[in-house]
Amino acid sequence: MRLSPISATQIGDHRFDAEVDDLSEAGRQAGLDFNRRYLAELDAIDADQLSREHQVDALILRNTLEYGIWDTGTLQSWAWDPQLYSGLAGGAIYNLMAREFAPMPERLQSAVARMEKIPTILAQARENLDPARVPATHARTVAAQNKGVLSLIDTFITPNADQLHGEDRARLDAAVKTLRAAVDEHQAWLDGTLVPNATGDFRVGADIYDQKLKFALNSSLSRQDIRQRAEAELARIRDEMYVVAQTVLEDREGAPDTPADPTEDQRQAAIEAAMEVAYADKPARDEVVDFARHTLDVATDFVRRHDLVTVPDDPVKIILMPEFQRGVAVA
User: Which residue ranges of the chain lie beneath pLDDT 50?
Assistant: First the structure.
């Protein structure tokens, strides 16, 4: 966790809340040394002597260590993915302030220490990134995200700044001023250097993709295996969707036919028509967040009343996507 303090904060390890990740050449080497050292120690363990649970843990650990080594040396995302740096810069503040795991003054002091170090993250991005390897989409996305760091200051830091006093408050004000200037400097580099010269290919190629897929899934399944499973699952789900569509469209005026043994065209027409019915029942654009909060309350109450699973007492908040994370869709 010492080498990934921003992620440590996110998962609840708060020993390094005042630190940020180091993506300089020395920092990357420290990460490699760490992964190789622990991989060697793992190799020295006789897995046959471990319990089944610990054997699984050992395999997961091995995959994580090997993935880290491969990412640094082979994939080299530090040299072509600017989202790595924008994510760290925003996460450094957001992970501290989004959850009330400690009193506000304590979290503010950690945030100040990190704000003093975020300019170094941005400088490392400019030092490490090779525009010729950066895909244009990545460059444009980060150029749009960059000033989201400032929105975090305006949302979390400035409204609570009066909770610090004396030298602590003066240090906060200085850190905010320095960070605003650093973000502006980085924006100028993004707009003037990176975006115009970003000519990398977002496609990493079949060999690299297959290697990354194995690490990401921690599985030996090939692309072909995954596709076969996906196609089989698609067929199964479409059958289920058709059964639901038959119920939704029953006796509905103008609905397409829903025979027991449909052709593929009939199946598609019925599914589309049923989905159109579902689409019509939606909140207005400015009511989506409130509707999501209501849905969460209803679902949480249902689960607790029926004692389906234990629901943690920590609150789950429905919020708008922070600006520094916008522009990337994950499904």
Answer: 330-331
